[in-house]
Design goal:
Layout: E1 2-5, E2 17-21, E3 24-28, H1 37-40, E4 56-58, H2 64-67, H3 70-75, E5 81-84, H4 86-113, H5 127-134, E6 137-139, E7 152-158, E8 166-172, E9 175-179, E10 202-206, H6 219-232, E11 236-240, H7 246-259, E12 268-271, H8 275-284, H9 293-301, E13 304-306, H10 309-314, E14 322-326, H11 336-343, E15 350-353, H12 362-367, E16 372-375, E17 378-381, E18 385-388, H13 398-405, E19 413-417, H14 421-435, E20 439-440, E21 447-449
Parallel strand pairs: 3-4, 4-5, 5-6, 9-10, 10-19, 11-14, 11-15, 12-13, 12-14, 15-18, 19-20
Antiparallel strand pairs: 1-2, 1-21, 2-3, 7-8, 8-9, 16-17
The structure holds zinc ion.
């Protein structure tokens, strides 16, 4: 067995691991690179092998940094199936066409306003190409081993990160490797904790928060004071959030706070055409989260769901305290950019992030204290209050990552990926100190024989 690291090295984006054994090739995750331009350009680079020579793709979860390259891979000639859990398929059914649509819009905007250096600017893939790719998806149940090819088997267990998220264990004659996928936390407000997994000979573990512990703070209290403070100033709270997962957690928290009268009764807008669909997916998978049927229903009934572009534009001139939740979570694209243009320049408003901000994204710049950010080719001044409530993150912190690894029995090697360099190296060091296991932080396109 050979593993090639084709993404999520030195970054949290672009997850792609190629396994090659006995004449078969499996691509574990097929994510988009996001953030720094030099990373985003990799989405346009040639793969190191012909896409037609990959036999199958297996997705650990639906977030675009794990699934968003699938339509491109299909366009490049990939002919196989894309395996994932039922909830991942349902979520990709919303996310991938939306991603294609956004890329078409961005290319179109760049062409009309002439701020692209490429002439003409092209989308990486279109909405239609994303829909075509979805026809290749095939559902794998959790906790059931499949034997796709002679000498291979694989099994997904729950990773507790978002609906459908799994850790993947691949076995071949003579060995095994475990991919953590993105790991959720043991104490998440909405998601169930990750499952304990069987030990493996090799482990690939994420390290998003490899150098950090989630603050032991009262998350709801912090959210309440940020919202109340903004309302008292007569401002608007803009929350960039992944439309899938974090948006629902935030809406649930806001409802808890409203019910307990800890925040003023102000309108909450969820500006995402796919949000209603996500609530249905929550309902369809009650065993993966902690929300009751009533709480799922409240996600929709107590929120104003904004679908059309016209309604979305109207949100940019609100005259009273309100909360707007809109994608993308790292402000790399999507409708939230228009809200940032409208609300970032006014000191009464608040921009509240609720998760990890990858280096090179507007989210990271804002959280880092930028006084202006470039949006659609022009600089927008930032005078609004900017907060990052990392305690709302959907990722395990360093202790929780180490705790998950405790189930392993001296693996031959641990590969630390899906982290920025400092985070990945801090987790490597922590693992070596705690367990004395051989630990490697691979580089882009590194290859290892297992
Ligand atoms: Zn994720």
């Amino acid at each position: 067995m050979r593993i090639d690291f084709l993404g999520a090295t030195g970054t949290v984006t672009g997850s792609k691991y190629l396994l090659t054994h006995a004449g078969r090739r499996l691509l574990v995750d097929c994510g988009l690179f996001q953030g720094f331009k030099q990373l985003r350009l990799r989405n346009w680079e040639a793969l190191q092998m012909d896409a037609a020579h990959i036999d199958a793709v297996l997705l650990t979860h639906a977030h675009l940094d794990h699934s968003g390259f699938v339509p491109r891979l299909v366009e490049l000639g990939f002919k196989g199936k894309i395996f994932c859990t039922a909830a991942t398929r349902a979520l990709c059914g919303l996310l991938l066409p939306d991603s294609g649509h956004l890329q078409e819009e961005e290319a179109d905007f760049a062409n009309r306003h002439g701020h692209s250096r490429h002439n003409p600017a092209l989308p990486l893939y279109t909405e239609q190409q994303a829909r075509a790719a979805l026809k290749r998806f095939e559902v794998l149940p959790f906790d059931e081993a499949s034997t796709p090819w002679p000498g291979w088997s694989w099994r997904l267990s729950r990773a507790g990160h978002i609906l459908g998220a799994g850790s993947l264990r691949v076995e071949w004659d003579g060995g095994s490797i475990l991919f953590s996928g993105d790991l959720g936390r043991s104490d998440d407000i909405v998601m169930m904790p990750p499952d304990k997994v069987q030990p493996a000979d090799y482990v690939v573990v994420e390290s998003t928060y490899g150098d950090r512990l989630h603050p032991d703070t009262d998350t709801l209290g912090e959210l309440a004071s940020a919202i109340s403070r903004t309302a008292a100033r007569g401002g608007v709270v803009v929350i960039p959030a992944f439309a899938v997962g974090r948006a629902q957690t935030l809406l649930h928290c806001i409802q808890l706070l409203k019910a307990a009268r800890r925040i003023p009764d102000m309108p909450v807008y969820l500006n995402s055409p796919m949000a209603a669909g996500v609530t249905d997916i929550f309902r369809a998978h009650p065993d993966e989260h902690r929300l009751s049927e009533t709480q799922c229903a409240a996600l929709q009934s107590e929120t104003v769901i904004v679908r059309t572009v016209e309604e979305s534009k109207r949100l940019n001139s609100l005259k009273y305290p309100s909360i707007i939740v809109s994608a993308s979570g790292m402000a790399t694209g999507g409708r939230v950019l228009h809200h940032l243009k409208a609300y970032a320049p006014d000191a009464r408003n608040t921009i509240l992030f609720a998760g990890f901000q990858a280096a090179g994204t507007r989210g990271a710049a804002l959280v880092g204290g930028a006084t202006s950010v470039k949006i659609h080719g022009a600089y927008v001044p930032v005078r609004a209050e900017v907060i990052n409530l990392e305690s709302l993150s959907a990722h395990a912190d360093r202790e929780q990552l180490l705790g998950w690894l405790d189930a392993q029995k001296s693996p031959k090697r641990v590969f630390v990926t899906h982290g920025e360099p400092a985070a990945a190296d801090a987790l490597r060091l922590a693992i070596e100190e705690r367990h004395r296991w051989q630990c490697t932080v691979p580089d882009y396109r590194d290859s290892f024989g297992l």
